[in-house]
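To the team - CU-O-CU linkage complex, inputs and output below.
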Amino acid sequence: MNRRAFLAGSVAAPVLTQAGLASETGLRLRAAPAHLQIAPPDYPATSLWAYDGQVPGPALRFRRGDRLEARLVNGLEQPTTIHWHGLRLPNAMDGVPGMTQPPVAPGGHFDYAFTLPDAGTFWYHPHANSLEQISRGLSGVLVVDEAAPPDIDAEDILVLDDWRLTEEAQIHESFGNRHDMSHAGRLGNYITVNGLPELSRDYPSGARLRLRLVNTATARVFRLVFRGLRVWVAALDGMPLDAPQEVDRVAIAPAQRADLLVDIAAALGEEALIASQERDGTYAMVSLRAGGPAQTPRPAPGALPPNDLPDLTLDDARKIPLVMKGGAMRGLPEGATWKGTKMDMRALAQEGQFWAFNGLAGMAEAPLVEAFLGETIRIPITNRTAFEHAMHLHGMHFREVLPGGSLGPWRDTLLVGPDETREIAFVAENPGDWMFHCHMAAHQMSGMMNWIRVT
Ligand code: C2O
Ligand code: CU
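Output:
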């Protein structure tokens, strides 16, 4: 494994400054420009947009059943909102401008208030001009603790992000260019953990950690491998697995989360690593130095306490297929309907639309699914494009219907590879209008957006 080289120069191991914990009430998040050192120390500070001047934004921490009350203050020069990603909250708190709330104008504010039904690892980000606002630094983690948290020695939140920086370490302005929109999205040239090029930590050899991983990038899928660690996936997208699953790698698509339980297997004085497999090599992102005194290894961990999810059975489920098309290489030879008008591929491209769901580019007048409250919906998602897509449903978690009919873990975002069909099923348990879109933000803005109505 290599140390990551970026731009030029080497990076001293920085120390994480823990994001301040917000109080339960009176929480205020101000989105505004900031200057922060995210590039290596021999580069200038980066001008970005941040919540409360921090990248990632303040880590919010609550207990299951608490009420979250937060005022978003808009210090940007454009409208914004906050979407609380992965939370089963009331529709009016979902943060989608023009759908669940008016956009928050520059200088304005909006009060969010809702009860947190699930323990787990969640995050928050704007849902207005998402590609630019998220890429410039607006996102943060929301942790909801279980009433009885698992027995661990330490916990860390690891926010994986990807930046496209200029040689002066400034945010590259090329938002929504045609190449990004029609290919894999806005991939960056610099990856960070908690806003830093690399993290290192000291732990006793044998210690058990809980690592809450969140991918806040708008395009990059992090494919992580481990050295000197025993790793179990204990929860995905906030929801505990029935039993932690031991793994030697984990892929985390944009917007996805993974709660890992990790035992430091490295011997005293050795370094354990979490590394990202990229096209050109494997780069260390987090190093965990095994210090003393060594602890005796523990038995495999048990499951995290479950959240109260609906009973999901496939009997009587209604099936609504979704076919994704478009993008570079394959295009939309049969055209698509955009804002009610059937258009050919060239006219669509002129409107910045490169993708379609069931022949519809962008938000359609009618929802993809109109479900009755309590109905079970199955959506086989067929990806006829040459790219992978991270499909996210707001307001409700789903399970994947695996080949053979068994059900996978509860998730809110599913990565669907080229030429794959992957089926999801969910109980329409939450009334309202809910977005269903690709979380590769450049795809979302160029066609891959739809919605589901639950009444
Ligand atoms: Cu993080 Cu519309 O989502
Ligand atoms: Cu996509």
